Amino acid sequence: MAQDQKGWTREQVAERAAKELKDGFYVNLGIGIPTLVANYIPKAVSVTLQSENGMLGMGPFPYEGEADADLINAGKQTITELPTSSFFSSAESFAMVRGGHINLSILGAMQVAANGDLANWMIPGKMVKGMGGAMDLVAGVKRVVVVMDHCEKTGAPKLLGACTLPLTGKGVVDLVITDLGVFEIDKHGGSTLCVVELAPGVTLDEVKAKTEAPVA
């Protein structure tokens, strides 16, 4: 990291999120920053990536010219298969999710509340295809980690006292990783975010100024 750099880049956020992976985990990666996590899986850790469109055991992104247009993840990005990969219907895939067989889901978000409420599927008035598998993922997965920018492009905070956008799930988020740091959700009725780690060059006062929810 450059000495004058403040906070984490998107890649560094993904790298920090990869530290939440444990050996033997089955993991679902959402669209956006979460897909970058696959590039930073520790060598000593063996995880199986699951895609809700019907694949277990995703390989890395293909090199240029080697992509198979029929082999994609849930975000419609071309991927590769592994010798251990398996394929099945989306119904079976969601049975894995709803049955609690996925250990960890790493998702993006538009808003997260201090109590773990999550809004990540629509902005009222904008055209959307539907919630897709987001609701199932946050309801059925054992642990949910959100990775996102700390603020909107307008500068408005995304970590709030209460979400203003339609919710994907209530009280479902366990941990939030942004360009400013790592924040733990108090899922026992608390309304204060706990700072686990600050990104390089970031102060607690700066985090408090850019966060609507109380921070400790």
How many extended strands? 12
Mean pLDDT across all amino acids: 91
> In CATH terms, what is the architecture?
3-Layer(aba) Sandwich
- The CATH homologous superfamily is termed Glutaconate Coenzyme A-transferase
Radius of gyration: 17 Å
Q: What is the CATH first-level class name?
A: Alpha Beta
Strand order across the biggest sheet? Answer: 4-3-2-1-5-8-10-11-12
Order of helices and strands: HEHEEEHEEEHEEEEEH
Strand content: 15-25%
Helix content class: 10-25%
**N/C terminus separation:** 27 Å
Structural class estimated from helices and strands = alpha/beta
Question: Layout of helices and strands, plus pairs?
Answer:
Layout: H1 10-18, E1 26-29, H2 33-36, E2 48-51, E3 55-58, E4 81-87, H3 90-98, E5 104-107, E6 111-113, E7 118-119, H4 134-140, E8 143-147, E9 159-160, E10 175-177, E11 181-184, E12 194-198, H5 204-209
Parallel strand pairs: 1-2, 1-5, 5-8, 6-9, 8-10
Antiparallel strand pairs: 2-3, 3-4, 6-7, 10-11, 11-12
Task: Describe the protein.
With 216 residues, the protein is α/β, with parallel strands linked by helices. It has a single domain (10-209), classed as Glutaconate Coenzyme A-transferase, CATH 3.40.1080. It is 16% helix and 22% strand. The chain is built from five helices and twelve strands. The protein has helices at 10-18, 33-36, 90-98, 134-140, 204-209; strands at residues 26-29, 48-51, 55-58, 81-87, 104-107, 111-113, 118-119, 143-147, 159-160, 175-177, 181-184, 194-198. The strands form two sheets. It has a nine-stranded mixed β-sheet with strand order 4-3-2-1-5-8-10-11-12. Strands 7-6-9 form a three-stranded mixed β-sheet, with no helix packed on it. A hairpin with a 3-residue loop joins strand 10 and strand 11. The longest helix is centred in the first third of the chain and has 9 residues, at 10-18. It is globular and about 50 Å long.
